[in-house]
Specification:
This protein is an all-alpha fold. It has four helices and no strands.
Length: 201
């Protein structure tokens, strides 16, 4: 145990000696004057100023590029908005024109329907009026003809109509005068009355 402790202490001593030697081995730098320090600092400042100016120029160029890109983007968006507005306006105009056309067609169809309905009612009224006006003169004429026939032929007479009695009277005279009978028969045949003669009772 004591041996181990002695080895450890010896090793620690060797390590310390090596570190002390390295510390003492540092070379002392030559002394720099204040003037050299100021000159070097001035050179550093000028370099820093130049670098700062260079960076500022680059940043300004980048900002200008960004501004131009932003302006171009805004112009493009404005152009797109104008195009969209124009397209929307054209679409609205087309829909409005289509609605006007549909309204015009509906109005035309409605007017045509009304004209057809009015024409149908007018035709019905004309037919009724024409029938009444056309039938009244015919009815009057037929009534007048019937009255004339009844008056002239005496159809309601108990001895028969006047024509029947006239033919019967001619038949009575016909046997006595053959020429009269022949003339009567020829006249009846000419007027197609020979077949419709009433038979003598």
């Amino acid at each position: 145990m004591k041996r181990h402790l002695s080895y450890l202490s010896l090793g620690a001593l060797l390590v310390c000696l090596t570190h002390v030697g390295s510390v003492f081995a540092v070379e002392v730098a030559p002394r720099i004057s204040d003037r050299e320090i100021i000159e070097r600092l001035t050179g550093l400042e000028t370099r820093m100023d130049a670098m700062r100016g260079h960076f500022e120029q680059r940043f300004d160029a980048v900002e200008e590029r960004m501004d131009t890109m932003q302006e171009q983007t805004n112009q493009r968006f404005d152009a797109m908005e104008k195009r969209m507005d124009a397209m929307q306006e054209q679409t609205n105009q087309r829909f409005a024109s289509m609605e006007r056309r549909m309204d015009d067609r509906m109005d035309a169809q409605w007017n045509l329907t009304l004209v057809m309905i009015a024409g149908i009612f007018g035709l019905i009224g004309f037919v009724v009026w024409d029938r009444k006006t056309a039938l009244k003169p015919l009815e009057r004429r037929f009534a007048r003809i019937a009255d004339d026939l009844e008056r002239d032929l005496e159809i309601e007479s108990p001895g028969g109509s006047r024509l029947t009695r006239l033919i019967a009277a001619a038949r009575e005279f016909a046997p006595d005068d053959p020429r009269l009978a022949e003339h009567i028969m020829k006249a009846l045949e000419r007027h197609s009355l020979s077949q419709e003669l009433p038979k003598r009772a």
